[in-house]
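ARCHIVE CARD
Drawer: 12
Card no.: 0347
Subject: one protein chain, sequence and derived structure
Cross-reference: see card 0346
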Amino acid sequence: MKDPELIHNFKGHKDAITCLDFNPSQKQVASSSLDGAVMLWNWTTDKKAYRFSAHTDAVLGISFSRTGHLMASCSRDRTIRLWIPDSKGENNEIRAHQGAVRSVEFSPENLRLVSASDDKSVKVWTVHRAKFSQSLIGHTNWVRCARWGPDGKLVASSSDDKTIKVWDETSGSCIHTFTEPKGFGQHLAFHPSGSCIGVGTSDSKVKVFDIRAMKLQQQYAVHEGPVSQVSFHPSGNYLVSSSQDQTLRIFDLLAVKPVCTMYGHEKAVGAVTFSPHGEYLASGAADGKILVWKANLEVSKSDEPRLVSKEMTSRAYANNMDRNLEEKENEEPVTKAVPASVRPLEESLSKLNVNPAGKQVPDLGGQVVSQLHEMTAKLETLTQTVLLMEKRLSLVEDQVKLLSSRTN
């Protein structure tokens, strides 16, 4: 792949950038900052940037509706504001939480909002009339981030209580809780297929959790500082992360390895996101600068997932499991057991060295047991290979389904 290419360098904020989002309908990117402002940047030279200053404290999150006609921001002043993204900057205030509101996002159908707050709650709101709908209660510390699943039925949230929760928004119940052994999830994002969530943690990890099997699928320990944000490429093949180590990292999820380290910021990078079609990505740092990059990632014009051969996928997965995926801390050791169907036969043959006709055959039982052990070892190796292949094929199937849904 070609290296990403820097195409824009925006300056205007007076403090650290906290969040970025692309307008789906035109070449604009919105930014939120600790300086209390929301800014809207135009890519064309004939238009100036718009600065919106209605919040009374640091703005911690920003989100466009899927049509681009509305914009939502959230702030340490405990409010959410809905904006019309034009020069007038008309907005409506929602008094949302009892603590700082750290994230906000429109649902896929644009009818609801989800917000996360220091008051330990996740809340759902209707966009029409800005009414409260329900609270998702279960976290015991600040909730850093909450995001909608692509189908609008699931919500995922990360908290300082070292848990990542997956919620059924309809019933308000928690489906599953992932527990972080050391750090906590600072930011998360749903895979475009809805099958996985990516998480950036305070202990410098980037993790991908499978929410169907409810387990950790991939883990990367390549950053040298806390990971501030993560974003999936629309194709589902790549994930980008930003970190306080002043870098961005791009990961190839099919090859299971980091493929690019991006330098350009001189201070901690607090925000990163891909554009809706994946051609671009934007990053923002503690110095108030926003960089827009041409991604140059290897995907087809139709965003069809880049397929990797079975042999290459399984080999890359196995190799990178050793390099990039650390063992899960505090996990009970797994003892490899002889299959139940083989064990009774082993025990019988170890006691009785007889052939089917009943004649004594010295050492025959020992030979059979030895062969059974060899067969069992081979079977385990084959089983592990099949499991690795299933994981890779499952990810490819998700990409095909995503492509089919877009085509239809």
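Annotation on reverse: The radius of gyration is 25 Å. The mean pLDDT is 83.
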